[in-house]
Amino acid sequence: MARSRTAYFGQISISKASGLCLGALALAGAALGCRGYQYGHLIKNDQPDMVGSHSAGSEVFNPLIDETVAKLLGTAEVASQHGLVSPDGVPIQRSVCFVGVENKSAEELGDFKDQIYQQIDTQINRSQAFRAISRRMVDAGLQETRLRPDALLVPDNMQLFCSVLQRDGQPVDYLLYATLTSGTTERNKSSQRDYLLTLELIDTHTGSYTKEQASVRKGYHSSYLGKAVNYNPFKAWK
Amino acid sequence: MPAPGGPVAACCLVLVLGVISSCGCSTHAHRLQQPRQLFYSNQLDQAHEQFDKLSEKKRRSDSSVVQLDLAMVELVSGQPRACEQRLRDIRDRWDHLEQDSVLESTTSLLTDDQRKAYSGEDYEKLLVRVFLTLSSLMQDGVDAESYTLQTIEKTEDLREKAKTKWGDGALQSYSVPPIAPYMRGVLREATLSNYDDALRAYQATESLLPGAPFALADIERVTHSVHSNPGHGVVYVLSMIGRGPYKTEVAAEATSDALLIADRIVSAIGQYSVPPTLAPIKVPAIVSSPMPFDVIGVRVDGIPVSTTLPLTDLHSLAEQTFNAKLPEIMARAVARRVIKKGAVYVAKDQLNAAPIASLAMDGLGVAWEATESADTRCWGLLPREIQVLRLELPSGTHTLDLEPVVNDRPCSRPTPCTVRVEDARNTYVLGYWPDLQPIGQILVNNP
Prior knowledge:
The complex is a heterodimer. By secondary structure, chain A is α/β, with parallel strands linked by helices. Chain A is built from seven helices and five strands; from the N terminus they run H-H-H-E-H-E-H-H-E-E-E-H.
């Protein structure tokens, strides 16, 4: 029995095996420098955003910001028709103190938070109805008063904060808060997350507020077919 | 009958492999021993000079660990900018080297793992980003927050890769170094307007360090209070304590014994014998020296205030991530042995080796196997633990005395440093105590 095994072992095509070894080495040699490099490219404005696989990104935040700010400015336009006007008949711009973005969603915003702030701030500043107060002035006011952003709604705190900015030549007509929330629906290995951006504009003179929202729904799946399985037109949720 | 020219090719192959393997037995730890010793004896200029000489040989397979050691020398010498630049280069280089190279993988199977360009252990990849955060904080801190995010993202990336390679069981070995979310919380809180981010970060820290008193205090503060009272600023004392994880070579006895039995079986049933596994299979293992003391006590203007508390245990981080990878290292070592034995067997067959020639070739095979050494390349100057203390102090200049403490008693003379505290701003103090005395300078970032 041992002999036959030996014979079998000896029958393995040794020359083929050594040929394969040499072939593998040659292949390895040919693969020299197979580590690639990283490349970048510019994305044209009309190209769609990349869709994040694990969390929200540009594809969620950009439309949210655009929609909420547009709604807020639209509402403000209507309101300003009944508001203060200059002797020339031009509506007077109201100053907005954008206090910050509060993240109450299930996801860490990472480097997107300041991006969201800057995008909202810029869009508001471009409008005819509002003039945004510089973020550096807002930060300086918060530093001086040592008030938390969420504490500014207490009337005494609001008054103190506005008086500090007014003293620095930045009277405040409105406080603006942005809040990002999310709601998650799980189904086996897929999930749907609804992102909601809310902008609250609070009149510091009267305490009344305007609120606008926009939402984006997004599905996450562990396989490529997850989208087809969960969101096909024939699917009837039960 | 073997194919014409086959014996010659086989002999050439064995000889070439032998030559290659003889080049593969570099002793990384021995080469870096002297400059590292100079570092620990606080002779930073000499250590820098020696590391510098070693780093000039750019084609060395351990050049990146030399660069890392240099970065540590520069950090404690008060050159955080140079340190940051060096660490950034290493980070980018390692990211590039994460891609597989077939040639290197093949060569490493014929020699040992040190033939591969060193792309860092997983814990080192995370710690490069941690030390980037610290070196940035010791300057203007402009990139510190980005580095904390990069650490968190890299952890997720490594977790995903570990899950793909080794299954769900590997996930528990990969957790983010607590210092990363903690420093993110510190930086977000310092904006005075992002307390929600700070809360998330401190909660993440607390989940990694359950019950850590400082994390609980931080959560309480960012939930209900503010960064600091008017007229006050905050000082963060970050202490790096002990000599951190490094790799050493150990023999995998059980695997060596199993392989010895296996090759005896093959020798018994085969036409030719295979080289016996006399040289043990060598694999790296993570070790650290014990902590030289417990914590750093801090006196402010001569008054004892508090002590630092553990924030990140680098030894545990290294051990956990390395142990997840160990079966793969072991498997590669066994595969390497099998290939070497197979090559000798093929050579014997091609040459129709006579018994004496066969014995000689076995000897050659054993020698070839004995040239293997474990890949002990590593960042050798890491601390064992990073600790932190948060102090809220009135604006102005203060003197801090930092002293090692064991069992609530000072065990070495204090090291003074002067800090300038600014209203509503953070000041960072960083020191490294591998033993009872600090190395180099106590770094202070004045806002």
